[in-house]
Structures are given as structure tokens and as C-alpha cells.
């Protein structure tokens, strides 16, 4: 028999340590790449050279459009600085509350992909287009329109908190990767035309925004999609492994006996307290055949 749904529902106090694990890995990666600006710039220029060889150049026209059109650039900066941190947790909580059966697989996919992205940030620090020398033709729209929002000149962090971010976390783009995850969840489990439209529009919007604001290259976005694909492939075996470990080291429960308090006891008509039955089904009388009414 399958366990009831409420018995398999994950608990928030078991989910918080996983969030702490992700943040700890991000913090460690930020500390490792600190001061490695020269290598990050070289990686960024390598991406530009590769895109030029492939005849790709989506970043420059989008960045010029956002720079010269405040009606597009300012909303794009707000989207970049906020939706990444709002929509993804909102979809995760929605899955936790409304789709508990599918939640573990969805969370496992998101976490596996995020850890893969953090590995990329750590071992392949990449300078985003906005931090390249001006000769390469990019404008930091976050700095240009900083007076309209809460962010400063250091990515999307609030003013004075730029040191809490990894400025070289460009490859892969988890903005795009997380947006793709949200789109898949909304498409599969939303169940309405509006959620289907949002499932397509949100990842596409984030892809244009991260390039137009000069925070990511086109290949960063492609790498973000690839990381999500790899995370999907790895998440299922990792979840099975985690379940086996949890089952092996979980405290042994008393499964040999019945969970019913009155196991082995039956109550006859008119009885308030069950009498113990023998294996043959007859009552074991304690008083040499005393009638049941005397009890």
C-alpha cells in the first residue's frame, strides 16, 4: 500500500539545511575567486573571441538598445535585480505546498544544477561584459540607472553590499538556468493558459535582460541551459543515493509488530475493554471460565 500523501510531504526544517549548503558553497566560491580579476578578464575575452568566430553578437545590440532607451533599460535592471530572487523561491514554495509528490524531484533538479553552476563560478571565474574595459563597447546599465533603484555599481546587490556577491559569476548564467527551471515547473504543473504563457515568456525575458544589461554573454546563457540539462540527468541517481543513505542510517522503526494499540485483542458485542484472544480465536479466560459479563 502506498503511504498517504501527508506522510511523504517534506518538512521545512529538513529543507533549510539544504539552502544553507548552497549558500555555503556560494560563499566559499566567492572567497576562492577573490583577487583573481586578471584570469576572469581573460576568460571573458576568450568568450568574446569564440562568439566572434561563431559569428554571434547578441550582446552589443541589446546593450546599446537598453543603454539608449531608459524605458527599456530601467525595467530591465529592476528585473535583473529582483525577479531572480523572487520568482524562483516562489515557484519552489508553490511546489512544496501544492505539489509535494513532485517537489523532491523538482528541488533535487534545481539544487544539483545550482551546485554545478557554483563549481563553474569557482573554477572558471569569468568577467561579465559590463566589467570589461570600455574599448570592448559595453555599458553597465546597472551603474547607469543606479539612481532609479536600490542597487549600486556592483551587480544587483544593494548599495554597500557588493562584497557579498561574486562579481565574476558569469559562466554559466544561473539567471537563465533558474528561469528555465521555473518555466518547466509552470508549464508542467500550472494547468492554465496564463501559466503556460508565463512559462515561455519568463525564461526568454531573463535571457534578453541578462545580455542587454551586460551581465552575461550569449554563451553564458547557453551554458546555463546546458547546466540545467546536466543537472536533470544527475539529480535522479543522486536522489536515489540520498534515499538509500537516509534509509540505511535512519533510526530503526518498530515495523515487526502491528501499529494498532489493540493488536491481538478483539472486542465482542457489549464489551468496552477487549479481551485477549487465543490463536484459536477463543477468549483466554483469566478466572477459570469466568463469564465475560463478570468482567
Question: How would the blueprint of this fold be written?
Answer:
Elements lengths: L4 H4 L3 H22 L3 H17 L5 H10 L1 H29 L1 H24 L17 H4 L29 H16 L3 H20 L5 H32 L15 E2 L8 E2 L19
Antiparallel strand pairs: 1-2
Summarize the structure.
The chain has 295 residues and is mostly helical.
Q: What is the N-to-C succession of helices and strands?
A: HHHHHHHHHHEE
Mean pLDDT: 80
**Distinct helical segment count:** 10
* Rough outline: globular
Indicate the structural class: mainly alpha
Q: What Rg is obtained from the alpha carbons, in whole angstroms? A: 29 Å
Subcellular location: Membrane
Transmembrane segments: 12-33, 78-96, 108-126, 168-187, 194-211, 217-239
Organism: Streptomyces xanthochromogenes
InterPro entries: Aur1/Ipt1, IPC_Synthase-Related
Give the key terms.
295 residues; mainly alpha; 2 strands; IPC_Synthase-Related; two-stranded antiparallel ribbon; 10 helices; disordered N terminus
Structure notes:
Pfam families: PAP2_3. The chain is globular and about 60 Å long. The model is unreliable at 1-7, 253-265, 276-287 and 289-295 (pLDDT under 50). Strand 1 and strand 2 form a beta hairpin. Helix 4 packs across helix 9 and helix 8 (174-189) crosses helix 10. It contains ten helices and two strands; from the N terminus they run H-H-H-H-H-H-H-H-H-H-E-E. The chain is mainly alpha-helical and 295 residues long. It has a two-stranded antiparallel ribbon. It has helices at 5-8, 12-33, 37-53, 59-68, 70-98, 100-123, 141-144, 174-189, 193-212, 218-249, and strands at 265-266, 275-276. The two termini are 38 Å apart.
Amino acid at each position: 500500500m502506498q503511504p498517504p500523501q501527508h506522510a511523504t510531504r517534506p518538512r521545512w526544517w529538513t529543507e533549510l539545511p539544504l539552502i544553507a549548503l548552497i549558500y555555503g558553497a556560494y560563499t566559499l566560491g566567492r572567497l576562492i575567486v577573490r583577487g583573481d580579476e586578471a584570469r576572469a578578464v581573460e576568460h571573458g575575452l576568450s568568450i568574446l573571441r569564440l562568439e566572434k568566430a561563431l559569428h554571434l553578437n547578441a550582446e552589443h545590440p541589446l546593450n546599446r538598445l537598453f543603454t539608449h532607451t531608459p524605458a527599456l533599460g530601467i525595467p530591465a535592471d529592476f528585473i535583473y535585480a529582483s525577479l531572480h530572487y523572487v520568482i524562483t523561491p516562489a515557484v519552489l514554495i508553490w511546489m512544496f505546498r501544492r505539489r509535494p509528490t513532485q517537489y523532491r524531484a523538482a528541488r533535487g533538479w534545481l539544487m544539483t544544477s545550482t551546485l554545478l553552476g557554483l563549481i563553474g563560478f569557482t573554477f572558471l571565474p569569468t568577467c561579465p561584459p559590463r566589467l570589461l574595459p570600455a574599448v570592448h563597447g559595453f555599458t553597465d546599465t546597472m551603474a547607469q540607472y543606479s539612481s532609479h533603484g536600490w542597487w549600486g555599481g556592483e551587480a544587483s546587490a544593494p548599495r554597500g553590499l557588493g562584497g557579498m556577491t561574486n562579481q565574476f559569476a558569469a559562466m554559466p548564467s544561473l539567471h537563465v538556468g533558474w528561469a528555465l527551471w521555473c518555466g518547466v515547473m509552470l508549464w508542467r504543473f500550472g494547468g492554465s493558459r496564463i501559466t503556460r504563457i508565463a512559462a515561455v515568456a519568463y525564461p526568454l525575458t531573463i535571457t534578453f535582460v541578462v545580455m542587454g544589461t551586460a551581465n552575461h554573454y550569449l554563451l553564458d546563457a547557453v551554458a546555463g541551459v546546458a547546466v540545467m540539462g546536466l543537472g536533470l540527468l544527475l539529480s535522479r541517481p543522486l536522489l536515489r543515493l540520498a534515499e538509500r543513505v537516509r534509509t540505511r542510517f535512519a533510526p530503526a522503526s518498530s515495523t515487526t509488530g502491528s501499529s494498532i494499540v489493540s493488536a491481538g485483542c478483539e472486542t465482542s458485542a457489549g464489551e468496552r475493554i477487549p479481551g485477549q484472544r487465543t490463536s484459536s480465536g477463543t477468549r483466554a479466560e483469566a478466572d477459570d471460565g469466568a463469564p465475560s459479563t463478570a468482567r
